[in-house]
Design brief:
Blueprint (H helix, E strand, L loop, with lengths): L2 H14 L7 E9 L10 E4 L5 E3 L5 E8 L1 E8 L6 E7 L3 E8 L17 H6 L5 E5 L10 H5 L5 E5 L7 E5 L2 E2 L3 E5 L2 E2 L17 E8 L13 E7 L5 E10 L3 E11 L5 E12 L4 E3 L8 E4 L5 E4 L1 E3 L5 E13 L6 E14 L14 E15 L7 E18 L27 E21 L2 E18 L11 E17 L4 E16 L5 E15 L4 E12 L3 H5 L5 E2 L7 E16 L2 E15 L2 E8 L2 E8 L2 E15 L3 E14 L23 E12 L7 E12 L2 E2 L13 E2 L2 E12 L4 E8 L18 E12 L2
Parallel strand pairs: 1-7, 12-15, 33-37
Antiparallel strand pairs: 1-4, 2-3, 2-5, 5-6, 8-14, 9-10, 10-11, 12-13, 14-15, 16-17, 16-46, 17-18, 18-23, 19-22, 20-21, 23-24, 24-25, 25-26, 26-27, 27-28, 28-29, 29-30, 30-31, 31-32, 32-34, 34-35, 35-38, 36-37, 38-39, 39-40, 40-41, 41-44, 42-43, 44-45, 45-46
């Protein structure tokens, strides 16, 4: 290890042995009946200390000056059964969301005490993590990608409208450096139809964004971070149905439902969505950005069009996931069988850049994925719990390129007819890609003592793809079988010290990769990663986090073997590795009806064998190819300020800056590289968001209704498509700064059961660009209807 790593480790060890003075807490909560009605005058006392309170007319209570520790809390009220439960107090502002008492004439004693939320527990870990509670976005027309794009340090760039390919950047690292999960399961194991840019936000309860350092239990080669989407399966009865219609003939529908039988434990979960769009927005000439929409006048002359509508960009996706099982059995807390099906139809309007227009190329794919999910606490031993998940997906992707045209122009006219040609290749093709994936995961948790936990995770992931050309099945160029096997093992030790003022985790990870084609020998290699995180709370309002990981990113299936469309294969690609460091400062306070949160972080990434996508000219136009660079250094800062007043007003402002540069000074001929200390290409390096919302309840002298107004501003500074010193702002290799304005208004009534939302995006109709200067949609309007029922009892 370098001196820098050793110093960083010593800091962790010193911190873990530090001591703090005894802290006291303020306890707040609400006492309600089984039907969620407040119980005024309910009494709250502690057996160990002489402190207590009575609930007000809304059932709320506050008790101050409680020393940290474990207490027996007594809750009583006239006409209700007295409740006695042990409860741990370990933070300055402890909130019991609801305490439910049971009437004396009820034979069943029922109580729910909900302390720190799952999202709050994750924030209190030492990881540099954003936790996005999606409830506030559920009525909007946004998908998961669009919600993530508002988060600190995250930048998502799409090649077009609904369903288009996208690049995800997190603290300066992007693409396959970032891994995605649904309930801890890699998203790619469900097939290509399960994608963040077509997944409605209603499906998610929260989204966890881990930056640079990733928990061992996620078990993946995430070099730059990870996104974990947590779905909601905790309701006894739930139904969430929505439908939206918007510009460019876009339609989106979503259904989420769940049921648990109160006696026999039978449970059923259903998630489904449907998306369709013509994506026929206007492409515009923009001289300031060096972009011109061209069309032929005759055989020798071209004319510049001010605008032209996209004419071959339809997108359709459908996904249904059904789970059936049991809960609360002696042999299993949860045992569920699931089946997921997704189907996608995608027309291709452009190649890797919008300068090459396609007119008839399209792809279809479908995937069927059966799965098993099992969870059991107190497995064999009191302190041991286990989670097992496994699935097998079988799918097929068909890419059709039979137009007999070399390419098209933006006015919809093709080039000359050629009976044997396609648009992507000089010959016609219908490429079939049969894809078989299997994934299995074991997660074990063991509590050594009250403040000491151990977690072990093991993942096994296999991917196999068989290619052939339906038109020319005997052409060996397409008849290729590719296969890779990935393994990930992780061991994590977590400790809570000094009355949980310090939260430490130490972990190691092992990555395994083996692969072969029908033209090469099998190769296998293993790599070892490790890291540590800590969270230190100095007082009731502020603290510091430190985290480090030596991480790896294994080449993806597509990077190694291409996609048969716009990405060329590179089987010699090496894994990237990085030393990632994070330092976070946070401050949380409340005064009266006001709430203020501040979070700032700085980070450093030292990446070797960095994998980067480059553009190359081929006879079929520009295509992407993943290659290893000698290394890249990334450093940056980001911050977020959040202010809230009651439940009426909320304002969130964040900014992110990073500097990712080529760290390799000399090339193979010992000459200084022209790209040395240049910023990496095609990556925005300064961006921010402003999100303001205002809401009011009980309008028009009616109860149980609410109006919610939202304004959202997105800023992206200018950046270059090539290495920074090689690009001029006057050329097409430069993307200008962008300011995108969005508004939304939601009216909800009958206790949020019925919701109507009108939303406008890119209100100023700014010409916005993303990956390799692909133009994004202009001004658009959305209407969304949503019906919601949820019950926890």
């Amino acid at each position: 290890m370098s001196k820098f790593k050793i110093i960083w480790l010593i800091v962790f060890l010193i911190i873990s042995q530090s001591s703090f003075a005894q802290q006291v807490a303020e306890l707040k909560g609400k006492i309600v009946t089984a039907s969620n009605e407040p119980i005024e005058g309910a009494s709250i006392t502690f057996r160990e200390i002489k402190q207590g309170a009575k609930a007000d007319q809304d059932g709320n209570f506050t008790i101050k000056g409680i020393p940290f520790g474990i207490y027996q809390i007594n809750i009583s009220a006239v006409g209700y059964k007295t409740l006695q439960r042990k409860f741990r107090i370990n933070q300055e502002h402890e909130i019991l969301r609801e305490i439910q008492l049971t009437a004396k004439n009820n034979g069943l004693e029922e109580v729910k005490i909900n302390g720190k939320t799952a999202g709050k527990k994750i924030k209190d870990s030492g990881f540099n993590v954003n936790v996005i509670e999606t409830k506030q976005y559920a009525n909007t027309n946004s998908d998961v990608n669009q919600i993530l794009n508002r988060s600190t340090g995250v930048k998502i760039r799409e090649q077009g409208g609904l369903g288009s390919k996208y690049s995800f950047s997190l603290n300066g690292l992007s693409g396959n450096n970032i891994k995605f999960f649904i309930d801890g399961v890699p998203i790619e194991s469900f097939g290509s139809g399960m994608s963040l840019n077509n997944m409605p936000v209603n499906i998610a309860e929260r989204i966890e964004v881990y930056k640079g350092v990733v928990p061992a239990h996620l078990g993946s080669d995430a070099l730059g971070g990870a996104i974990n989407i947590v779905t909601n399966r905790d309701y006894k009865k739930s139904l969430d149905v929505s439908y939206s219609i918007s510009s460019f003939n876009t339609h989106r529908a979503a259904l989420s439902a769940g049921y648990k039988h109160p006696k026999n434990g039978l449970m059923v979960n259903l998630n489904s969505y449907y998306n369709f769009s013509n994506n026929n927005y206007l492409m515009k000439t923009n001289p300031k950005a060096g972009v011109y929409i061209l069309a032929p006048v005759d055989a020798s002359r071209f004319d510049t069009l001010q605008s032209a509508r996209r004419f071959h960009d339809d997108y359709r996706s459908f996904m249904t996931q059904v789970e059936v099982g049991v809960s609360n059995k002696k042999w299993a807390d949860i045992a569920v069988l699931g089946l997921t099906y997704n189907d996608v139809y995608d027309q291709q309007q452009t190649a890797a850049t919008q300068e090459r227009v396609l007119g008839q190329v399209f792809s279809k794919n479908h995937t069927l994925t059966p799965s098993l999910r099992y969870r059991k606490d107190k497995l064999f031993f009191e302190n041991l719990s286990a989670t097992v998940y496994a699935n097998y997906s079988r799918g097929e992707n068909v890419i059709t390129d039979t137009s007999s045209r070399t390419y098209y122009f933006w006015n919809g006219l093709p080039t000359e007819y050629s009976p044997t040609a396609g648009e992507l290749n000089s010959y016609k093709s219908i490429i079939h890609q049969k894809i078989n994936n299997s994934f299995s995961q074991l997660n074990l948790n063991y509590k050594l003592a009250a403040q000491h936990l151990i977690n072990f995770n093991y993942n096994l992931n296999t991917n196999k793809r068989e290619n052939y050309n339906e038109i020319d099945p005997y052409n060996d160029f397409y008849n290729i079988t590719n296969q890779i096997i990935r393994t990930n093992a992780g061991l994590n030790y977590q400790q809570f010290l000094w009355k949980e003022k310090i939260n430490n985790s130490f972990f190691i990870k092992e990555y395994g990769l083996s692969g072969k084609t029908n033209t090469s020998e099998k190769t296998s290699k293993n790599y070892l990663g490790y890291g540590a995180v800590t969270n230190i709370r100095f007082g009731s309002s502020y603290g510091i986090k430190l985290s480090y990981e030596h991480a790896y990113q294994l080449p993806s299936f597509t990077q190694l073997f291409g996609d048969g469309l716009n990405i060329m294969p590179n089987e010699k690609l090496r894994p990237a590795n990085s030393d990632n460091y994070n330092l976070n400062l946070y401050y949380v306070t409340a005064f009266g009806n006001h709430r203020l949160n501040f979070d700032a972080s700085t980070y450093y990434r030292n990446v070797k064998d960095y994998i980067i996508s480059k553009m190359y000219d081929t006879p079929q136009g520009q295509k992407q190819l993943a290659e290893n660079e000698g290394g890249v250094k990334v450093n940056g800062v980001d911050f977020e300020i959040k202010y809230g007043y009651k439940s009426d007003f909320m304002a969130v402002f964040n900014m992110s800056y990073y500097n990712a540069v080529d760290r390799e000074r000399f090339d193979n001929n010992n000459r200084e590289k022209i790209t040395y200390k240049n910023r990496t290409p095609n990556e925005p390096w300064l961006f921010g968001n402003l999100d303001i919302s205002y809401g009011r309840n009980n309008l028009f002298d009616k109860k149980d209704n609410r109006i919610q107004l939202n304004y959202y501003l997105q800023f992206i500074n200018n950046y270059s498509l090539s290495w920074s010193k090689l690009a001029e702002k006057s050329t097409k290799d430069y993307i200008p700064a962008q300011w995108l304005h969005n508004i939304a208004a939601t009216y909800s009534f009958n206790n949020n059961q019925y919701n109507i939302t009108i939303e406008g995006k890119n209100l100023t109709d700014q010409i916005a660009y993303d990956i390799f200067k692909q133009q994004r949609p202009g001004r658009s309007v959305y209407l969304k209807l949503r019906y919601l029922i949820q019950s926890t009892h």
